[in-house]
Amino acid sequence: MINAASKEVKEKYDKLVNEMTPKSPHLKNIIMAFIFGGLVCVLGQAIYDTSSTLFPNLSSTELGSVQSIVLIFITALLTGLGIFDKIGNIAGAGTMIPITGFANAVSSTAIEFKKEGIIFGLSSKMYFVAGPVIVNGITASVIVGIIYYLIDLIF
Amino acid sequence: MKRVGKQTIIFENKPKIIANSAIVGPKEFAGPLKDFFDYRIIDDKWNEDSFEKAERKMLEFAICTAIRRSKKKLKNIDMLIAGDLLNQIITSSYAARKIDTMYLGIYNACSTFTEALAIGSVLIDGEYLNNVACATGSHFSTAERQYRYPLELGNQRTPASQRTVTGAGCSILSLEGEGPKITMATMGKVIDYGIKDANNMGAAMAPAAMNTLLAHFEDTSTSPKDYDLILTGDLGNLGSELLKIIMNNHGVDISKNHNDCGKLIYSDIQRTVQGGSGSGCSASVFNSYIIKKLNSGEYNKILFAATGALLSTVSTQQGDSIPAIAHALVIER
Fold first, then answer.
1. Do B156 and A29 touch (CB under 8 A)?
2. What is the mean pLDDT of residues B5-25?
């Protein structure tokens, strides 16, 4: 016999825990995510517009890359200085979903595991938070691509 | 037979806690127990090159300080019983490398400290050993990286989560000397009520605390009013409320004299959500705040039940529920 409680006791306790556990403040989180996510986009657009005046020869695709690179740089810098996690704690999905979230996931992990060495620490653990995003992102885009192809074929 | 009931053993020789020491991190030192902590580290790394080494240094410091305060020579300390939260309890074993004595490394998550005191008391009560050092520690930064995410990751904490305490504590047990006496120990069973949320450890551990406390009251024919304080380890705010409710459902009211180390160590404004946890939580609070109150006579008899959630990242990822345990001690002035 294991010391696990009976099914009724478990269900009763589970109900009590659900009642007692404070819920995430969803409305507040959504509003914060909207504001901070919007601010990240405004910043991105500002970088885009500034670089288009500074480097008039660049195409719009190239300007997009410049914008991503600058946002990644800012995030990595703030992560290294220990500021980004404090922003992220308030902003939530607002800074997690844009490219800033990805940059933070990679750079924070790289800092964290540097102590275990460049090869087996930093290099191998660097994508342990961001890795699932890449895997599922690529898988999803492949599936969407196939569906798009099929739709194109039929109609 | 030195046992009453099923789970409680009685120490006839009454081992004494003759010396203590506790050391905490900066955040813990900024909390409500500031005046009770004798030592703190100013930055989380304590001049070491990794958080793991800083945790080890804190534990070594706690052990050495307690031994020095006991006025015993190191060669008279017969055994070190220690545990921590890191994989393969490296903090304790590496700290023990510096202490020239017999060593037992134990693990019961956050209840390790009362487990160490219970084992130490048995060895001393049985007159196998003269002086035993019992120590545990934990560190916020090492626990975060082992159990959760990188420190600098910008994610939000869930509203039921607790913060691992950066701290370590050590008690020296002996028959000779002055100090509070350990008179009974009630060892816990592993209890699982099916909680699966690793961010809600208080809820997972409250049934284990209840089980051990109920067993203790039944075995010893005592009730909560026989104790000045019923102290749990690290249930935090939510876990403590749950414990009071489920104890009440069994007809035992502990709401008057219950407190919790995880609740005591941080103030509400420190944004630690539900309070502290970790094997350093009960160790640092007991070896500073509680022991000072016992020595000053504010408490005469306490029931100290540290609780532990016996999960790992593997069991969580495989979707297992969280088993928990609690070991209780009666400590009298």
1. yes
2. 95
Six token digits for residue B96: 């023990």
| Domain hosting residue B149, numbered range | 3-174
The reply to whether residue B246 touches residue A16, judged by beta carbons under 8 angstroms, is yes
- Whole-angstrom distance, CA of residue B303 vs CA of residue B280: 19
Contact B150 A109 (CB under 8 A): yes
pLDDT over threshold 80, residue B272: no
8 Å CB contact between B125 and B16: no
Number of other CB atoms surrounding residue B318 within 10 Å = 8
Report how far residue B175's alpha carbon sits from residue B256's, in angstroms, rounded to the nearest whole number: 33
- Asked whether residue A1 is assigned to any structural domain, the reply reads no
Are the C-beta atoms of B235 and B262 separated by less than 8 Å? yes
- Residue B213 sits in the same domain as residue B124: no
Distance CA B322, CA B296 (A): 38
Residue B225 belongs to a domain with what CATH number?
3.40.47.40
Checking if the pLDDT of B186 tops 70, the result is: yes
What pLDDT score does A1 carry? 40
In a domain, residue A105? The reply is yes
Residue range of the domain that includes A81: 27-112
Residues of A in contact with B152 (CB under 8 A): 79-80, 82, 84-85, 104, 107-108, 111-112
User: Is residue A32 in some structural domain?
Assistant: yes
| ipTM topping 0.90 | no
Residue A92: inside a domain, yes or no?
yes
Q: How many domains does chain A have?
A: 1
Mean pLDDT of all residues in B270-280: 88
Given CB atoms, is A105 within the 8 Å cutoff of chain B? Answer: yes
Q: Is the pLDDT of residue B132 over 70?
A: yes
Q: Mean pLDDT in chain B? A: 94
pLDDT digits (tens, 9 = 90+) for B195-236: 999 899 999 999 999 999 999 999 999 999 999 999 999 999
> CB neighbours (10 Å) of residue A130?
19
Distance in Å, alpha carbon of B74 to nearest chain A alpha carbon: 33
Report the pLDDT value the prediction gives residue A50, as an integer from 0 to 100: 95
Task: Give the count of domains, chain B.
Answer: 2
Bridge partners (DSSP) listed for residue B277:
B164
B312 and B224 share one domain: yes
10-residue mean pLDDT profile of chain A (155 residues): values are 71 92 91 96 95 92 94 95 92 91 92 90 88 92 96 89
Evaluate the CA torsion angle B78, B48, B283, B147 in order and state its sign.
negative
